[in-house]
């Protein structure tokens, strides 16, 4: 069962990852491609709502959707940046109100598919 699937009556949870990359110069073009492909797969499966770096810092934020904290942690751990030892992170359960979610998804609309416009920012 994937993180986006649940048993009847089981709700998915939201998890906020605050991460740091100390040495972005170690990110090769191929590693960036692997990382972006991985994040796109998570988005397609509904396991990643949003993510990206804070402007002018080495910090980043991602919002995951998973059935448990352990599943959310596994999603972060499978990121090529984490596998390469470049990403440190904290993972916290996050309460996302349904109205806020609806508004966010409505605001993103068709623009949500245009991740390639900002892929370089993910470095």
Q: Which structural class best describes the helix and strand composition?
A: alpha+beta
CATH architecture: 2-Layer Sandwich
Strand proportion, as a percent range, falls in: 25-35%
Total beta strand runs: 4
Could you say how many structural domains there are in total? 1
The biggest sheet amounts to:
4 strands, antiparallel
Strand order of the largest sheet: 2-3-1-4
Report low-confidence residues grouped into runs of 5 or more.
1-10, 111-123
| Percent range of helical residues | 25-40%
What is the number of helices?
4
State the end-to-end CA separation: 31 Å
The CATH homology group name: Dimeric alpha+beta barrel
Radius of gyration: 14 Å
Written as H for each helix and E for each strand, in order along the chain, the element string is: EHEEHHEH
Q: Taking all residues together, what is the mean pLDDT?
A: 81
- Coarse morphology: globular
CATH class categorisation:
Alpha Beta
Oligomer: single chain
In CATH, the topology is named Alpha-Beta Plaits
Would you mind describing this structure in some detail?
By secondary structure, this protein is an alpha+beta fold. The protein has one domain: Alpha-Beta Plaits (2-Layer Sandwich), CATH 3.30.70. The protein has four helices and four strands, in the order E-H-E-E-H-H-E-H. It has a four-stranded antiparallel beta sheet with strand order 2-3-1-4. A hairpin with a 5-residue loop joins strand 2 (48-53) and strand 3 (59-66). Mean pLDDT is 81; it is low at 1-10 and 111-123.
């Amino acid at each position: 069962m994937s993180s986006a699937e649940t048993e009847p009556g089981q709700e998915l949870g939201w998890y906020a990852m605050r991460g740091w990359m100390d040495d972005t110069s170690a990110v090769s073009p191929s590693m960036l491609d692997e990382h972006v492909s991985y994040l796109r797969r998570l988005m397609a499966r509904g396991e990643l709502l949003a993510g990206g770096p804070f402007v002018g810092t080495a910090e980043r934020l991602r919002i995951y959707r998973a059935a448990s904290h352990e599943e959310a942690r596994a999603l972060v751990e499978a990121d090529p940046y984490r596998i390469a030892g470049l990403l440190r992170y904290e993972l916290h359960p996050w309460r996302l109100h349904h109205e806020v979610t609806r508004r966010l998804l409505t605001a993103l609309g068709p623009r949500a598919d245009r991740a390639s416009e900002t892929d370089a920012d993910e470095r």
